[in-house]
Structure formats: C-alpha cells, structure tokens
Amino acid sequence: MGQPFKKRTSITTLIMAAAATLSATPVQAAEELPAVIVTAGRIAEDPARVSSDVTIIEEDEIKKAQAPSVVELLKRKVGIHVASTGGPGKATSLFMRGGNGGHTLVLVDGVRVGAASTGAFDWSLMSPEDIERIEIVRGPQSSLYGADAVSGVIQIFTKTGAGAPKVRINGEGGGMNSSRGSMQLSGSTENGISYALTAAGQRTTGVSVAANGTEKDPFRQSQFSGHVEMAVGEGTLEVTVRQSEGRNSLDGGWVLADILNWNSHSRQSVYSIKGSYPLLENWESSLQLSHSADDVTGTDPANAANNSDIHTKISQLNWQNHVDLDNFSLLFGFDHHSDRVENPLAPINRVLRQSAGFAALSWHGEIIDLTASGRYDRNSDFSDKGTWHIGSALRPLVGLKISANYGTAFKAPSVNDLYWPALGNPNLKPESSKGWDAGIAYEQSGETLGYAFSATWFDQRFRDLIAWAPITPGSWTWIPSNVNKARNRGLELSGRIDFAGAYVAANWSYLLAKDSANGTWLARRPKESGNILIGVDIGDLNLEGSLAIVGPRFSSPNNFSYMAGYHKTDLRARYHVNETWELTARVDNVEGKKYEEAAGYGVPGRVWYAGAGATF
Asked: How far apart are CA 391 and CA 55, in angstroms?
C-alpha cells in the first residue's frame, strides 16, 4: 500500500493558511475564556496562569452548534479526531493527539466513566442537553488523574441552576425520521439550594451500519440528569445523578453486512455526592464519593456469538486538599477506585483496585507561573506506577503567553486483556508514555474587534502498548502482550477573529502518528485535519457555517484499509423570536458527501432538521 499522505488537497492548503493567521492560545483563547478553569490542575485557576494546552466549550457555543451529541462538539476542536461505526448512536472512538481511544480519561463532574472491560469510553450515548461546559486538557495528565490520562483529559460539567425557577423546552425533527426533545427545570431557592433537572430523548431510523447494506439500523436514546448544590455552614454539598440509555440495531459478520435482528441495549450511569469545606481561611478540603456504571446487552436470535451481557461498575473515593500560601499553591490528596466487570457469557467476574496519593505545587510570579505534580498508583492486579509533570507559563507582554510542559503517563490493562478466558494475559504491564509540548499564543480583545492565535508543537512516545502477539515465537496461540511502541508528534494551530458581531475561527492539526517498530501509520489518525467556522450575529439571528476537513488515513493497523480524505460542510441558523421562543434549523453534510470514518461503515448523507424552543 502506498503512502496516502504525500498529496495535499487545495482545501487543506487553504485551512493551513487560515489557521496560521487565525489561531488560538494554549488555553485555546479561540473560545471566550471563563473566570476559572478546573481540570488542568484539579482546582479553580486563572486560565492565563495555566501552562497546559486547554480548550473550553462554553454553553453559548453548545447552543449555537445545535449538536445532537457531545462528540459532534469535540470533533470540531484542534487535535481531536473521531471514528463512528455506522451513523447516529453507534460505537464511537475518540483519538486525542493520535493516542488510542482508551488514552483519554473522561470525567463527568469529577467522576471517572468508561468500560473497564475494554478500557475505553463509548461516546455514542453522550448528548449535550444537560451540559454547561466542557474542558479539554491535552498531553500526559496521569500525575494528577492516574490511569488512562495518557493523551489528555476531557471533563463534562453538567448544568447548575441559579435565580428564579425556569423551564426550558426544546424539540427538533428532520430527515431519517429523526426527532429529539428535552425539558429542563432549573433555579435556586431563597435558602441557597440550586438545582437543574433535565430529561431528554432522541430517535432516528439512521443508516445501515454496513455501508453496503440496505436495512436501516435505528437508534433511540433517553437521558435524565439532576444536579443539586447547597450551602452547608461555610462549605458546600453537591449531588449529581445522570443516566443515559440507548437501543441500537447492529450489523456485523466477517464481511460486514446486514444482520436483521441483532439489537443492543446500553446504559451509562453516574451518581456522586461531594462535600467541600474550608478547614482554614486558606485551606479547602473536599471529599467525593461516586459510582459510575456502563452496561451493554446484545441479542441476536440467529447467532449466539453476537450475544453479550457486560456490566462495568466503578466505585470511587476522592479526597483533595488545596492550600493557598501567597504566591504558592499546594494541592495534595488521595484517590481510590474499584472497577468491577461482570460478563456471565464469557464468563468473567473480576475487580481491579487502584489507590493513589498525589501532590502538586505551583508558584505564581508577576510574569511567570511554574507547576510540578507527582502521583504514585498502587494497583491490585498489575505493577504499581509513578508519574510526574512539570509546566511553565511565561507572560512577558499583555496578551502574550509562552508555555511548555513535560509529563509521564500510563494506561491500565483492561479486564478483557487480563482475564478473558483462555486468551487473557494476567502478566500484562501498564502501557507507559512520556511527552512534551511547547506553545506560543497571543490574544487581544476590544469593544468591536478581538483576535487570538497560537501554535503548539507536541511530541509523545508510547511503550509497552498492548497488542495481540504469539505466546511464543511461531505459536498459533495469540494473547494480549506488551509488544508495541509508537511515537506521536505534530503541530496544532487554531484561532479566532471577532468583528462587530461576525466571527471566523479555524484550526489545523499536522500529526505524525506512527508505529515505532515498522513505521506504519496508526489506524484512523489523519496526518492532516482541520475545521473552519464562519458565523454572524444579526440582532436576534445567529447564522453559522462550518467546514470539517479530514485527510487520508488507514482504517486498520499496518496500513490496511485505505480511506480517502474528505471535507464536509454544515449550516445552521438560530432565531430568537422573543424572550420566550426561538427557532432553529440546520443542514448536515450540505453537499451530500460520501465518506468513511471507519472502513465499511455507513454515514448519513445530506440531512435537514428544524426545531423550536421555549423558556418560561
């Protein structure tokens, strides 16, 4: 198979030029930054003093995007690529900076989520109706978060209430017999209890999972969430509940094709209670107890091999302390989580336990900020692991920031890799990584004109990656083994210009993600990708058009299953009729492009949607 990345399309050249002149900061100033950012250091911090490469997706951007899923929001951000296997609601993997799908830690209000059976999070059930903001932190983050924070961390913050009670109702319908709706009640009481309750659902006939199939594979989803916060003395108490369920029809086979009666039922749940209290004027301590679950059941009357019954439960305890000492900030704490996997069809019934102590020290000067963190994880079923991270942010001029980071990270073996009957390997070690990045950024804002740009170079190496290999040379028996190495490096540009209600944003990623042993490209990671967003606010009307560009890549390891590059255009409009009502409309894949995110799997063509919402 030849090199797929030698030619650069004219449109990719265009995105390079656009991104070079319209880039964002290492804290991705392309988005309007909030007062604080939490995920980079596990505490509320001034974004200007954070060295890590961070993107923030605020609620206003979520509303304008009209995205039916969180992954649709994330794939528009620099350094993130997504592969969905068959249209809406189907299994979806996310690759950050070229890392594997399980190399990004996902948190919901501080709670670790995902399937310990596979070691990854399936994004297909995550919809944005109850989400207030999303924080993306790129690069090795295990020194604060432990296992799986290899390429970065994505944290979802659910909505909180404030002020007088209000009800928000939304509905939308469109092509593929699609419909979705949501209702939210939020507000706060006179005695300081804030609340936000959300119920949402969607359904669609979708497309055939198999691109060559003729039978549509429908998807329907329901979601409920609640977030309550109250004052307890001088401290606070927060309770979060979130549950999302989905029902899918699937295709499969050695050669991917229609399967008429293969259905799947999935459920993702999060339950959390967190208390925070100031022990001293400059010392806050918090304790969070939480539980997350990921359940998947599959049934196929014609083929028992397609049946599944897999249940993951993660019980967690997080104790954290933050001490402010003038220009210094000290963070220390203890994390513990127990991951149980039950799969009666395999059969598997196993529990993995991890306990860790961590600490971080930051110093904030007039023009420079320095931070260092370290963590040691004790693991019940594989070797213990220590990780560390250092970072600096230099601010020599107003609006200018120069940042650098270096860190180590690890990925825990999955229960399937360790204990699958007859084919698991209980002697597996964690996957390990080390990497650095350096960035330069500039941002200015005014009453009518604002702009920001950045360039970030990163280089990350991986060893002991788990892959199937012969148990001994020449053996016909293959098991998961620590045999692979990889190196991901590249350049990320992004930015934004705002002028008198109009805005243009662009990002571009140049990624060299290769297997270090044989030099082949890592599967489903394009060498070049980017996005352009053009929008305008005209009174109560918002108009946006977005262009996604994905370069050629291979769908399978060792340069198999070549997939051509593509570009896709989406349009959307949002109109506030009055203080109560608004109307929305969007067209996805305006040009009706045929493309692939994973070889052989179907994707929707041109689809129209229209909707309305009201706030009371």
From this structure: 17
CA distance 33 to 48: 9
Query: CA 414, CA 423: separation in Å to the nearest integer?
Result: 13
| Rounded Cα distance, 143 and 338, in Å | 19
Of the listed ranges 241-245, 248-252, 572-576, the one predicted with least confidence = 248-252
Q: For the purposes of burial, counting CB atoms within 10 Å of the CB of 187, is it exposed (0-12), middle (13-18) or buried (19 or more)? A: middle
The residues, any chain, with a CB within 8 Å of residue 484's CB and separated by 6 or more, are: 462, 464, 465, 466, 467, 515, 516, 517
Work out whether strand 104-108 and strand 152-158 pair parallel, antiparallel, or are unpaired: parallel
CA 380 to chain centre: 27
What does the pLDDT look like over 279-326, one tens digit per residue? 999 999 999 999 999 999 999 998 888 999 999 999 999 999 999 998
Average pLDDT over residues 358-378: 97
3-state secondary structure of 20: helix
Q: Find the Cα–Cα–Cα–Cα dihedral 140, 17, 531, 137, rounded to 10°.
A: 20
Which is it for the CA torsion 77, 82, 88, 89, positive or negative? negative
Q: How many CB atoms lie within 10 A of CB 613?
A: 20
User: Residue 306's closest CA among 339, 257, 349?
Assistant: 257
Mean pLDDT, residues 118-128:
90
Check if the beta carbon of residue 572 is closer than 8 Å to that of residue 584: yes
Cα separations in angstroms, 529 against 5, 392, 515: 12, 28, 20
SS3 string, 491-535, reads EEEEEEEEECCEEEEEEEEEEEEEECCCCCECCCCCCEEEEEEEE
CB atoms within 10 A of CB 364: 16
261-to-131, 220, 234, 250 alpha-carbon distances in Å? 34, 16, 56, 8
d(CA 63, CA 48): 26
CA pair distance 516, 483, nearest whole angstrom: 11
**Cβ(84)–Cβ(74) below 8 Å:** no
Question: Rounded to whole angstroms, how far apart are CA atoms 84 and 209?
Answer: 10
CB contact set of 535 (below 8 Å; sequence gap of 6+): 64, 502, 503, 504, 542, 543, 544, 545
Q: Are 151 and 104 in contact (CB under 8 A)?
A: yes
| 3-class DSSP assignment, residue 216 | coil
Structure token pair of residue 71: 């992954």
* Three-state secondary structure call for residue 123: helix
Instruction: Tell me which residue of 241, 240, 334 sits closest to 287, measured CA to CA.
Output: 334
pLDDT digits (tens, 9 = 90+) for 151-194: 999 999 999 999 999 999 999 999 999 999 999 999 999 988 99
Q: How far apart are CA 562 and CA 544, in angstroms?
A: 32
DSSP at 116: T
DSSP secondary-structure letter at 89?
T
